[in-house]
Amino acid sequence: MGEGEPSNIHLQRRDKSLPRDVHLAELAHALLALLLLLQKLALARHVAAVAFGGDVLAEGAHGFARDDLAAESESVLVFVFENYCCLRGPNMREIGCAEARDKRGIYTVHHQMDNLELRFRLKKTDGTAYIRTESSAVGGWQESHYHNKVRETYIVQKGWIGYAELTKNGPGISIFCEGELFTTQPGVIHNVFMPANAVIHTVKHGDCTSDDRNTAGTSDFNSYCTNLKSEKEILDRDSRTSRTSYSEEYRHFDNLIWQVPAWATAIFALSLQGLSADNIRGIAKIAAVTQEQLAVVFLFTLSLMILCFSHVMYRFRVHQKSLKEYQGASTFRSASTYTQFMVTAQAASLFVLALSALKVPMWLAVGVAAAGLLGWTIYRERRLRFGKDSVKAKFTGAVRNR
């Protein structure tokens, strides 16, 4: 506010907001209300919320520690501000749309676009604007364009968006989720994909004098974008994830994944050593069973134990993949895939020996174990990468439920 400019803040009921000409009872009432507020605030640690006229502005992750405390404190503040220092004055003047347009160059314009999304705009003749965009029930791409001077700041309110831009290295796509924001740069061709029911806010700002939106020379890039029709194609091209460093949780599961094969291999080696004739004969005599019966039980038990290790390793991989914000190696190039296969193969080998001890033909035992090994491995790898345990499935489900 410059020097000599009148203040836009007007006090209402000055007899209650200023100490002069105020009744002692009312002053005491206000003081009591403020003391009550301070008492309430003192009960909460790390308080970071201020209630003003019914709105609560929370700073930090939790705000008030108790909902009832927040409600009581808010009611006290509302009472104090409305009755003793209300800022709403009778001199506040409403500016009509005609005056805003004619004198200030500010106007509103709303459209339903060709892709059925809704745009609600508050614009100024210098090219700056605010736009609320709500996508349709099916979603889709917008139109590729660029600005000479205007910058656009996008804020994702609901769902997620795919932001595509043309750089010197070619087209790239970045995924932004609810609560994230970013700003475009002048001269950069870009486009935005909005899935179904997403909501974003766009603020146009910069050193500009008019709306400098351009579409010339963007047809090839626009074709690149519109050819990506499925959400999976767009999510798979997210370039932001490749720049994410490993987290401590990721490293923890990575260590566990590589420890499980060592445990399983140690048990497998001890199992084979325990199958010596002297050991089997002695244990069978103590257990009062035949050596064949003891070998079958021993082999089946160890096979199931190592199979459990294989499943534990798989679950570690699932949790690790949920922390991995980039697309990992393919199935046949992943070291963890072969390690998982090795552990499961150890369990299958003991299973074959157990069937052989039951006088099952070797060709049949090997065939059953090999079929089970390959089928189980293929099922789990597909589930890990494309099924319910995949990162993309969880990510897509999360953003759709927002």
Feature tags:
402 residues; four-stranded antiparallel sheet; disordered C terminus; single chain; alpha+beta; disordered N terminus; six-stranded antiparallel sheet
Q: Any idea what the shape is?
A: rod-shaped
According to DSSP, the number of beta strands is: 14
Question: Which spans of ≥5 residues are poorly predicted at pLDDT below 50?
Answer: 1-22, 40-67, 391-402
Largest sheet, described in full? 6 strands, antiparallel
Radius of gyration: 34 Å
Order of helices and strands: HHEEHHEEEEEEEEEEEEHHHHHHHH
Q: Provide the spatial order of strands within the biggest beta sheet.
A: 3-4-5-13-8-11
What class, by secondary structure content? alpha+beta
Helical coverage, percent range: 40-55%
What is the helix tally? 12
End-to-end separation: 41 Å
Strand content: 15-25%
How much is the average pLDDT?
74
